[in-house]
Write a structure and sequence with these properties.
The chain is 51% helix and 7% strand. The protein is mainly alpha-helical. Bound molecules: s-citryldethia Coenzyme A (SDX).
């Protein structure tokens, strides 16, 4: 393989360097293209454009591979814990027993939020969408912890903010849930691990000690691990580009939460359940809804199907589908929408429309069914996606800072009006 490629424009030929990654991915480095040729590239939606070099997550959409720092997602989902995976993504290696113990201790020390934050919680209408609350509350953390705004951030300053954000996210997410239910909030307790503490703040009660079913703790760990990072997806790219302006971590992650909210991205897990419920109410006729999804004149899309990168199966969907069966059986739940989901998948995977377009179930197709089985309301699903994706956003933001990447500033091709003179309003 040559380490350069040639680009011929008119009678001139240009040599552009080739970049090869550790998993043999290949890229043409166009950093100097405009200076050399006066041309920019155009790739609306960035389907063919690499924005960075990253050592965090590798995925191969053609064969359905996903690895965090070189570890296959299947092994991490089966053997690791979410906090351990968070440590792996952020610091680069699996922690020793002392390292994870210290990490948990640091986080426990910061799980409380400033009591004045409660005024924000109280200010939201009780039926306001949890994602709108989450993006606001996370951004407000810079007001309570102004050290994150210091222009010169030492590695210790950055790590302090990372620990605070990881710790307070569980409290903020669980309190959003409690407020939506009209229940009193539950404070964190240091005797619990990260995920158990979150579940206790979410499902615990003031009036009695609640024991969280280990089945639910295990399922939550798997779901959060599967959502922890996914290289340069829409919300992660948002976090990176906001952070590239030297905006603080809280505001960068708040922007990522807003990007994740969209139904084409993280909001799909809520949209899937709403779709399955609609099909169930409509009598469960999966063929009718598959045909609607195929009809170009019908805006309906099969939510939870298709992916910008996975053009074979999404390895996370496979793991979640199996976890679905296990958890519903262990909890003794027979959820009709799971049967509808399985029928949809079965029909779609045999249909030429979906086969030709390489549309398969993605991470969002089955996750909502588990969240519902664990007791979460539908509009909390994307907030749970954000809780899972937080370590990935942090790791990617940290890598961008450590690599001293420049402020992100894409170019464009202008296609608007040319050379017009101003006309006074009485002459228009
Ligand atoms: C996530 O990027 C990530 O890594 C994201 C994520 C992560 O972990 O961060 O994996 C999480 O966002 C998963 C995706 C969740 N979104 C959904 O489930 C929403 C439904 N899916 C689609 O909207 C769509 O598949 C996208 C947005 C996910 C991908 O869109 P693409 O790759 O740009 O595909 P496309 O829009 O170019 O569609 C190609 C063709 C089109 O038909 P034609 O014009 O060729 O005839 O496939 C069709 C589309 O109409 N198509 C669908 C479809 N998805 C694509 N048709 C019906 N149902 C669908 N779901």
């Amino acid at each position: 393989m040559s380490d350069t490629v040639q680009l011929k424009i008119d009678d001139k030929t240009y040599e552009l360097p080739v970049v090869k990654g550790t998993e043999d991915e290949l890229a043409i480095d166009i950093t100097k293209l405009r200076d050399l040729t006066g041309y920019v590239t155009l790739d609306i939606g960035y389907k063919n454009t690499g924005a960075t070099k990253s050592a965090i997550t590798f995925l191969d959409g053609e064969v359905g591979i996903l690895k965090y720092r070189g570890y296959p997602i299947e092994q991490l989902a089966e053997k690791s814990s979410f906090l351990e995976v968070a440590y792996l993504l952020i610091y680069g290696d699996l922690p020793t027993a002392d390292q994870i113990g210290n990490f948990q201790k640091q986080i426990n020390h910061h799980t409380l939020v400033h009591e004045d934050m409660k005024k924000f919680f109280d200010g939201f209408p009780s039926d306001s969408h949890p994602m709108g609350q989450l993006t606001t509350l996370v951004s407000s953390l810079s007001a309570f912890y102004p050290d994150s705004l210091k222009p010169i951030q030492t590695a210790q300053d950055v790590n302090n903010t990372i620990i605070k954000l990881l710790a307070k996210m569980t409290t903020i997410v669980s309190w959003i849930y409690k407020k939506s239910m009209g229940h009193p909030v539950i404070y964190p307790q240091n005797k619990y691990d990260y995920v158990t503490n979150f579940l206790h703040m979410t499902f615990g009660q003031r009036t009695e000690e609640v024991t969280i079913d280990p089945v639910i703790v295990d399922a939550m760990n798997v779901l959060l691990i599967l959502h922890a990072d996914h290289e340069q997806n829409c919300s992660t790219s948002t976090v990176r580009i906001v952070g590239s302006s030297e905006s603080n971590l809280y505001s960068s992650v708040s922007a990522g939460i807003s990007a994740l909210w969209g139904p084409l991205h993280g909001g799909a897990n809520q949209a899937v359940i709403e779709m399955l419920e609609k099909i169930k109410e409509d009598g469960g006729d999966t063929d009718k809804w598959i045909n609607k999804a195929k009809d170009k004149n019908d805006p309906f899309r099969l939510m939870g199907f298709g992916h910008r990168v996975y053009k074979n199966f999404d390895p996370r969907a496979k793991i979640i589908k199996k976890a679905c069966d296990d958890i519903l059986e262990k909890l003794g739940i027979d959820d009709e929408v799971l049967n509808i989901a399985k029928r949809l998948e079965e029909v779609a995977l045999k249909d030429p429309y979906f086969i030709e377009r390489k549309l398969y179930p993605n991470v969002d197709f089955y996750s909502g069914i588990i969240y519902r089985a664990l007791g979460f309301p539908t509009d909390m699903f994307t907030v749970l996606f954000a809780l899972g994706r937080l370590p990935g956003w942090i790791a990617q933001w940290k890598e961008m800072k450590e690599n001293k990447e420049p402020i992100g500033r894409p170019r464009q091709i202008y296609v608007g009006a040319v050379d017009r003179d101003y006309v006074p309003i009485d002459k228009r």
